[in-house]
Specification:
Largest sheet: none
Strand content: under 5%
Radius of gyration: 16 Å
Oligomer: single chain
Number of helices: 4
Number of strands: 0
Distance between the termini: 17 Å
Shape: elongated
Order of helices and strands: HHHH
Structural class: mainly alpha
C-alpha cells in the first residue's frame, strides 16, 4: 500500500502542478483573488500540501474501511465519488470567482480523486484470504 500511496501522491502533485501552471500562464487562476481559508491568493505550496494530505487521508479511510467492511473497495469508491461531487461546490463559495477559475479548481479535485481511485482499485489490499 505504501507504494500506491507514493505513486498517487506523485501523480496528483505532478498533474496538479501542470494544471496550476497552465492556469497561471493563461490567466485563469487570478493572483489577486483570495481562495485559501485565511484569505491568501491561491499559490503552489498550499496546492501541493492539499494534494499530499488528501491522498494520505483517502488511503487512511480505505485502510479503515478494509478493517470494518467486507466490500471496502466498493464502499470506498462510492464514498470517494460522493465526496468528489460535494467538493465541486467549494470553489463556487469564493466571492467573485470566475467560472473558468472554479472549473480549473474542480479539475484539480478530479485529478486527486482519479489518482486515489486508480491506485486503490488497481491493487487488491484485501486481507480476506
Amino acid at each position: 500500500m505504501i507504494k500506491s500511496i507514493f505513486k498517487s501522491v506523485i501523480f496528483s502533485v505532478v498533474i496538479n502542478m501542470g494544471v496550476y501552471l497552465i492556469g497561471k500562464i493563461t490567466g485563469i487562476l487570478s493572483p489577486e483573488l483570495p481562495v485559501t481559508p485565511d484569505g491568501q491568493p491561491f499559490s503552489l505550496p498550499p496546492l501541493l500540501m492539499a494534494c499530499v494530505l488528501s491522498v494520505l487521508a483517502a488511503f487512511l479511510v480505505y485502510w479503515l474501511l478494509q478493517r470494518f467492511i467486507q466490500k471496502a473497495k466498493f464502499a470506498f469508491t462510492v464514498l470517494s465519488s460522493v465526496l468528489l461531487v460535494a467538493s465541486f461546490v467549494t470553489p463556487f463559495s469564493v466571492p467573485n470567482i470566475s467560472l473558468s477559475m472554479a472549473m480549473m479548481l474542480n479539475l484539480m479535485h478530479v485529478v486527486v480523486a482519479a489518482s486515489v481511485l486508480y491506485f486503490v482499485c488497481k491493487n487488491d489490499y484485501s486481507y480476506e484470504k
